[in-house]
């Protein structure tokens, strides 16, 4: 899990630097690991939080809002993953 968190921190940093294309490519490689992590979470409330944060992240990607995506990753998704 630490590897995923570190990669997400890097992606958020890249997004804050407006490196959108490269950060999206890195995010695509992390998504399978996130999916696997969500499947392994036994605590339903944490699993629901992860799904919620990922939904916000997806919405930010659809709107091409790198800042919202970075904020969602660094201020939400990583915080939830730290609880696992």
Q: Can you write the helix and strand succession as a string?
A: HHHH
The low-confidence parts are none
Mean pLDDT: 91
Radius of gyration: 12 Å
> CA-to-CA gap between the ends?
8 Å
Q: Assign the structural class, choosing from mainly alpha, mainly beta, alpha/beta, alpha+beta, or little secondary structure.
A: mainly alpha
Largest sheet: none
Shape: globular
Number of continuous helical runs: 4
Query: What's the total number of strands?
Result: 0
Helix content: over 70%
Q: What percent strand?
A: under 5%
Count of all domains = 1
Present the secondary structure layout.
Layout lengths: L1 H15 L3 H21 L3 H19 L3 H16 L3
Helix pairs in contact: 1-2, 1-4, 3-4
List keywords for this structure.
mainly alpha
Question: Can you walk me through this structure?
Answer:
This protein has 84 residues and is mainly alpha-helical. The chain has one domain (2-81). 85% of the residues lie in helices and 0% in strands. It has four helices and no strands. It has helices at 2-16, 20-40, 44-62, 66-81. Helix 1 (2-16) runs antiparallel to helix 2 (20-40), helix 1 runs antiparallel to helix 4 (66-81) and helix 3 (44-62) packs antiparallel against helix 4 (66-81).
């Amino acid at each position: 899990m630490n590897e995923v968190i570190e990669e997400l921190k890097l992606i958020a940093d890249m997004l804050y630097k407006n490196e959108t294309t490269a950060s999206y490519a890195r995010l695509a490689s992390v998504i399978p690991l996130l999916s696997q992590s969500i499947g392994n979470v036994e605590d339903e409330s944490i699993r629901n939080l992860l799904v919620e944060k990922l939904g916000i992240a997806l919405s930010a990607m659809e709107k091409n809002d790198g800042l919202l995506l970075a904020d969602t990753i660094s201020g939400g998704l990583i915080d939830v993953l730290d609880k696992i």
